[in-house]
Design a protein that fits this description.
By secondary structure, the chain is α/β, with parallel strands linked by helices. 26% of the residues lie in helices and 26% in strands. The protein has helices at 10-21, 34-38, 49-55, 71-80, 96-99, 124-130, 166-189, 223-233, and strands at 3-6, 28-32, 59-63, 84-87, 106-112, 120-121, 135-142, 152-159, 205-206, 240-244, 249-259, 269-273, 276-280, 285-293, 307-308.
Amino acid sequence: MKVCVFGNKSTTSAVLRHLTSHHAKPHSLVTLSKENISQLEISGVDRDIASQAESLGIHVYGTASYGLKSTYDQDFFSKEAFDLGICTGWQRLIPQEILNTFRLGIFGWHGSGFNLPNGRGRSPLNWTIRLGMHEVFHNCFKYAEGADTGEIYDTLRFTVNKDDYIADVLEKAKAHIQDSALSLIRDAANGSIPLSQQANYPAIQFPALNEASGRIYPSIMQGADVINIIRSCSFPFPGSYLYDQNRNTKIRIWKAEINEGIKDLRIGYARMVGKVLLVRCRDAVISSNDFKFESTKIDKVADSIDFLCG
C-alpha cells in the first residue's frame, strides 16, 4: 500500500508519527518547499516537518506551488502512482488531474457545528466557536472536484465546551484524524473503504476569515459574542484584538472571561487594573490577563484611566 500524506502543519507531523508508530508508515510526505513555506502565513505551521519526516524514513517532496498546478508537481504524482492519499494541514484544493492519479483517492477531514453538506467552506472549526455552537461533526471524506463535496468515510461527533478555545477543539479534531487515518489505511489494505453519499440540497457555507475578522468592537458587540471571537482566534491563530485609539495600537487578546463585578466602565472603553485588562461591551464587561499591546513603545498603561477602544 503506497500512501502519500499532504500537509504543512503540526497536525500533519502528528499523523506521520502516529501512523509510523502503528506500523502504517506512509511512503511520502508532500509539503511546501522551505522557500515557499517561509513566504506564507500558515496558522499552526510546522517549519521542521520535512526533517521530521525524513527522520522517520519517509520520502519528502517539496512542491513547486501550493496549488499543485505546475507540470513539475503533476509529473511527480503521475510517476509515483500512489494508492491512497491522506490530507491534513493543506489549505488548498487539490486539482482533479492529481486526484485522478490516486488509485483509491485522497481523503481529508472537515468539521463544524453543522453536519455536511452544511458547514462547507473555510475555517469551519473557528466559525463553530465564533457562532457559539456546542458540538462538532468531524468528517473524514474522499476528495472530489467540488470543495467538501465528496463521499464520507466516517464522522465523529464531539462536544465544544463553553471554555474551550480553538486549540482545545483542534486537539479533539487531531485525535480523530489520527484514529481515522489509521483505520482508513487498514480498510484500504483489506480491499474495502466504506463510503456514504452526502445529501444533495442547498447548504450553508462559511466564508474565509482573516486578520480583520478578529477585531473586537465593544461599543456595538455583546460580551458573549466578544468572548466567542477571542476563543475562535486564539493560539495557534493570530489572536483577536482591540484597537486603542489613543495610542494607535492593537491590543492582542488571547483569553478572556465575563467580569460581573465592574459597573462603572463606559461602553466602548477599556481600563487597566494591575495586570488585568477590562473592556466594557454593550451588555457586559470582559476581563483578560492574557493580552499584549502590540506597539513596542508602550511600556506601561496607567491604572484606572479609561481609554477608548471602539
